[in-house]
Design brief:
Number of helices: 14
Catalytic activity: prephenate + NAD(+) = 3-(4-hydroxyphenyl)pyruvate + CO2 + NADH
Strand content: 15-25%
Organism: Microbacterium keratanolyticum
GO molecular function, one term: prephenate dehydrogenase (NADP+) activity
Family: Belongs to the prephenate/arogenate dehydrogenase family.
CATH superfamily of the largest domain: NAD(P)-binding Rossmann-like Domain
Radius of gyration: 24 Å
Number of domains: 3
Structural class: alpha/beta
Strand order of the largest sheet: 3-2-1-4-5-6-7-8
Largest sheet: 8 strands, mixed
Number of strands: 12
Enzyme class: oxidoreductase
Helix content: 40-55%
Length: 370
């Protein structure tokens, strides 16, 4: 085996059965199939199953299949049912699931008296706004956390299978209890979905002229508002208590700022608003940045003509200048034949990037601190 072959060799061996050929299930299938793993797909929708197979996410099931690992990737309201059925059907297999809520299905299975020795809950923190097999991609897990919820009965070999699954698709496995997981995703995933959706709902009755002023900030804030309502009803219902706790605290914060703005000249009003913005600064700084580090970057906004090859030329010339692009956001200027490329760079590289790009004829629209 060459070094290249070794680098891409799968940790998993044997057959992996994936139940649910939607976005996550099919994406896992693509990632494992690319490494030569034998992936079997199952779905209650024949059309979804055929589509996932046609796209190369795995093969159809056979009667003689004996999977070593089963991945349940179905909607939250049927996750417990499918886990129970798979444990019963394949008594020698380890079963995991990728539902975004971990405590409710676990409690449901416990209440039914299901033997959970071979079950390990897990959750990849990855996804897209669009669902279904047609949106599946092998690379959506790369560099993303994959939570694994073991307990005292979990066998080391079984745990290794689930961790190998995460590693084979490029994710980073980490252990949490179901309670820790659900509280964490309430804050970092479920409440942001509600907030984005409520804010985007304000656009429904807005005048067209107002929406024409929308910039990258509002687009970033509302990007996830395009998510599937039916799925999110299930997710939020399954994790209601932790979500409500965060929403109640957020509602109190909003009320405090609203009250301050009703009388902005009242004593303490400006401090209330300033504290809200400052605490937001501190919170953002705690989010892991590139390579998992909390780092601050400088930003420059470059005007890019809306013609073929211009963005590639920009990146090429930044490379020639020795400037590493830490992050990139693109915004099209309404009614204009150019876009704005907002590029994050190391502070020490900012001046060289600006001077070098201007010498090459690029127009710098602005500079900001990130």
């Amino acid at each position: 085996m060459t070094d290249t072959d070794s680098a891409i060799a799968a940790r998993l061996s044997g057959t992996v059965r994936i139940v649910g050929a939607g976005l996550l299930g099919a994406s896992i299938g693509h990632a494992l199939s690319a490494k030569g793993v034998d992936v079997v797909l199952s779905d209650t929708s024949p059309a979804q199953l055929r589509l996932a197979i046609d796209y190369g996410a795995g093969r159809a099931a056979r009667e003689d299949d004996r999977p070593a690992l089963i991945v349940v990737a179905v909607p939250p309201d049927v996750t417990a049912d499918v886990i129970e059925a798979e444990l019963r059907r394949f008594p020698d297999a380890v079963v995991t699931d990728v539902a975004s809520v971990k405590l409710e299905p676990l409690n449901a299975l416990r209440s039914r008296g299901v033997d959970l020795t071979r079950y390990i809950g897990s959750h990849p923190l990855a996804g897209r706004e669009r669902g279904g097999a047609i949106s599946a991609r092998a690379d959506i897990f790369i560099g993303r956390p994959w939570v694994v919820c073991r307990d005292g009965e979990t066998r080391a070999a079984d745990l290794a299978l689930v961790e190998d699954l995460a590693l084979d698709v490029g994710a980073m496995p980490l252990e949490m209890t179901p309670e820790e997981h659900d509280r964490s995703v309430a804050l970092t995933s479920h409440v942001p979905q509600v907030v984005a959706s409520l804010l985007a709902a304000r656009f429904v009755d807005a005048k067209e002229g107002s929406l024409g002023l929308a910039g990258q900030g509002v687009r970033d804030t509302t990007r996830i508002a395009a998510s599937d309502p039916a799925l999110w009803v299930q997710i939020l219902g399954a994790n209601a208590a932790p979500v409500v706790a965060v929403l109640d605290a957020l509602a109190a914060d909003l009320t405090r700022v609203s009250d301050a703005l009703r009388a902005p000249d009242a004593p303490g009003a400006r401090r209330t608003v300033a504290d809200a913005i400052r605490l937001g600064n501190e919170g953002v700084e705690r989010l892991p940045g590139k390579h998992g580090q909390n780092r601050r970057f400088e930003q420059l906004v470059v005007m890019v003509d809306d013609t073929a090859g211009q963005l590639g030329r920009l990146f090429g010339e930044l490379g020639e200048l020795g400037v590493n692009v830490e992050d990139l956001r693109l915004e099209h200027s309404p009614g204009a034949q150019f876009g704005l490329a907002e590029i994050s760079v190391e502070p020490a590289a900012l001046r060289g990037a600006i001077d070098g790009l201007e010498e090459r004829g690029w127009r710098i629209a602005s500079m900001t601190n990130d």
